[in-house]
Every structure is written in C-alpha cells, then in structure tokens.
C-alpha cells in the first residue's frame, strides 16, 4: 500500500478563501498543501469584472484576480495541486482526506474552502439539454450565443450580472424572475432595467424547454397558481441558470454541523468548526455575505487559527 502523506496544514479549494489561507499559512511556515478542486480558481473564474475587491480602482477580471492570488500563495511555499477531495474522516486527529478516490493524506489541520456550486431548477429538460443550450455560466458559454436570443433565470446580482454580460453578445436577453421584483443590488437593477436589449419577465416561472437539436424555446408560466395564470412558449437559443448556489460540504456532513441548505456552521464570527483543528472559510460556511473579500478575510482567519492550534499542540 502506498505510504500515507502527512502534512501540517491541508487546504481544500482554490477560491479567494483557500488562496488567502494559503498565503497566511505559507508565511507562517506551515508548509500548506492546497488542492484546487473541481473548478481551479473557484467561482470568480466564471465572472467578468470584479469591481468591489479593494485595491483595484479600475476593477479586475475574475480569472486575473485568481491568478494573482494563486501566484501569491505559491510565492510563500504553498504546494498547489490538482485534485478533488472525495472523502473525509474527521473522527480523530490527524484527519484523513482522500484525494480523487485514491490518495490519502493525513493532516493536523484542515481548512475547508470548497465554496459553492450553481443550482439548477430541477427540470428534466435541464439535463436533456445540458451542453446543448443550458448553462449555469454566462461567461463560460455566452460566446456561443452571439446575435442569438437567450434567457437568464433569477433575480439576484448573479442573474443581473449575467444578463448584462450576455446582452453584450446576444441580440436579446429575457430575464425570467419569479417574484414581482428583483432582489439584486440597486446598481445592478438599474443596469438591467435600463438596458435596451434586456426584457425582464416578472412573475414568470420556467417549467420546461423544447427543441429538436438543442434548446429552441422555453415554456413559461406567468403568475403561477393565480386565477389569471397564463402559459406560453418563448423561442430562445440559450437558457442560463443564475438562481443561487449549493455549498460543497457533502463529504464533511457526518462530522460537522451544517444548516438545512448545507452551509457549515462555525463558531460565531470565527472559522472554527466543532472539530478542533478543522476550519471552514469562504462560501461553504457563509450563507450571508458570499463576497470575494469576505471569503478572503475568513481564509486569513482560518490560517491564523490553524497556526495557533498547531502551536498550542506543540506541533510547530
Ligand atoms: P441570490 O440568492 O441572491 O438570488 C437568487 C435568485 O434566484 C433570486 O432572485 C431567487 O428568487 C431566484 N431563485 C432561486 N431559486 C429559484 C427557483 N427555483 N426558480 C426561480 N428563481 C429562483 O443568489 P445570487 O447568486 O444572485 O447572489 C448570491 C450572493 O452573491 C448575493 O449576496 C449577491 O449579492 C452576491 N453577488 C454579488 C456580486 C457582486 O457584487 N458583483 C455578483 C454576484 C453575486 P427569489 O428572489 O424569489 O428568492
């Protein structure tokens, strides 16, 4: 059997939380190992401009920001690796993490920064047309819809951002919103409402898709369940989901407390979980703020906690 690798600090996930934890853990001489996970760089790699990360007065692209954070983490000795954590045993320290179903690592401290993944409506047609007109990432797939008609589902900041982005490529964008209002920030609401190519369909639900060779249209219900409910079809070429995210905490659920959605519950404002030496940072533990800068802040806290824990145990 292959020898089990032993480390002092293992970081899972490569968004702003993971990389910031790595920068701090590296500078504290914890020799951190970081596994990048399914989506290296995390959700921000699918974002266009990030305008609210302090230090970039002109904004910065999501992928560029993540590349900078990765380079900074590497500079202080973080061992950044490809791989996905597929199982965890947090019953006792040192904690065991399985990577890609085969490699085992034992770690004295664990920083979980696995982020969150885009949600789907749960329609059969989303699976049927996956990669054939259905997408949860406008910046990844928008290019395929130049001069075409697309729909975005959702009324939050993500949906508005994706609608504006797609409007720069497509000929027409419908924003399908189930409520009679947008939940997005005022500035994003204004950008959407004032955009000539975007039409907001308030009080609409998407209930199905149709098309012979990929998506050719969406079946909509206006004012679902009301006496004046109305059903109709709308021809579109692309269907984009932007209805929120699910935290990637499944493999830790047997050992850590989570809320009903799956967000890891930590101790007050700290990244401490109920297992000593195991910390959760970023979106996987944050149903409230979910910002790059708050994720980075919690990654910093997690690394400081890891350093103090190791020091108190006499490991460093
Ligand atoms: P949100 O949870 O804020 O919004 C989700 C949207 O999807 C809501 O309009 C919700 O409707 C709708 N929705 C959820 N489920 C369904 C469903 N089954 N059918 C139809 N509609 C549905 O998620 P976001 O991803 O937009 O944003 C997450 C966080 O990230 C927020 O705090 C946001 O402010 C932040 N963010 C910030 C950005 C920035 O500052 N640049 C960019 C993107 C996100 P309803 O309102 O009815 O619940």
TrEMBL record:
Annotated FAD/NAD(P)-binding domain residues: 8-299
Keyword Flavoprotein: yes
Record-listed E.C. numbers: 1.8.1.9
Residue ranges that the Swiss-Prot or TrEMBL entry lists as coiled coil: none
Cofactor(s) annotated in UniProt: FAD
Gene3D superfamilies assigned to the protein according to its UniProt record, in alphabetical order: FAD/NAD(P)-binding domain (3.50.50.60)
GO MF annotations, alphabetized: thioredoxin-disulfide reductase (NADPH) activity
GO biological process: removal of superoxide radicals
InterPro entries: FAD/NAD-bd_sf (IPR036188), FAD/NAD-binding_dom (IPR023753), Ferredoxin-NADP_redctase_2 (IPR050097), Pyr_nucl-diS_OxRdtase_2_AS (IPR008255), Thioredox_Rdtase (IPR005982)
Enzymatic reactions: [thioredoxin]-dithiol + NADP(+) = [thioredoxin]-disulfide + NADPH + H(+)
Subunit structure: Homodimer.
Family (UniProt): Belongs to the class-II pyridine nucleotide-disulfide oxidoreductase family.
PANTHER family: THIOREDOXIN REDUCTASE 1-RELATED-RELATED
Name of the protein in its database record: Thioredoxin reductase
């Amino acid at each position: 059997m292959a020898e089990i690798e032993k480390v002092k600090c293992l970081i899972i996930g490569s968004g702003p939380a993971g990389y910031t934890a790595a920068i701090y853990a590296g500078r504290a001489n914890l020799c951190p190992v970081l596994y990048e996970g399914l989506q290296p760089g995390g959700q921000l790699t699918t974002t266009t401009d990030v305008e609210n990360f302090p230090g970039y007065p002109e904004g910065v692209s999501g992928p560029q920001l993540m590349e900078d954070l990765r380079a900074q983490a590497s500079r202080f000795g973080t061992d950044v690796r490809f791989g996905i954590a597929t199982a965890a045993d947090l019953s006792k320290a040192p904690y065991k993490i399985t990577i890609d179903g085969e490699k085992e690592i034992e770690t004295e401290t664990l920083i979980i920064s696995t982020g969150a993944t885009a949600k789907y409506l749960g329609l059969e047609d989303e699976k049927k047309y996956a990669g054939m007109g259905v997408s949860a990432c406008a910046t990844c797939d928008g290019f395929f819809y130049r001069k075409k008609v697309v729909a975005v589902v959702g009324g939050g900041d993500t949906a508005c951002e994706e609608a504006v982005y797609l409007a720069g490529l497509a000929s027409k964008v419908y924003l399908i919103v189930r409520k009679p209002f947008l939940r997005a920030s005022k500035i994003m609401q204004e950008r959407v409402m004032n955009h000539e190519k975007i039409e907001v369909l308030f009080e609409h639900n998407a209930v199905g898709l149709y098309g012979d060779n990929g998506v050719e249209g969406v079946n909509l219900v206006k004012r679902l369940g009301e006496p004046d409910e109305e059903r109709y079809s709308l021809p579109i070429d692309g269907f984009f989901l932007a209805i929120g995210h699910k935290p990637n905490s499944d493999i830790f659920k047997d050992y850590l407390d989570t809320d009903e959605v799956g967000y890891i519950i930590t101790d007050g404002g700290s990244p401490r979980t109920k297992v000593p030496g195991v910390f959760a940072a970023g979106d996987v533990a944050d149903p409230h703020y979910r910002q790059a800068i708050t994720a980075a802040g919690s990654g910093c806290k997690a690394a400081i906690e890891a350093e103090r824990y190791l020091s108190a145990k006499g490991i460093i």
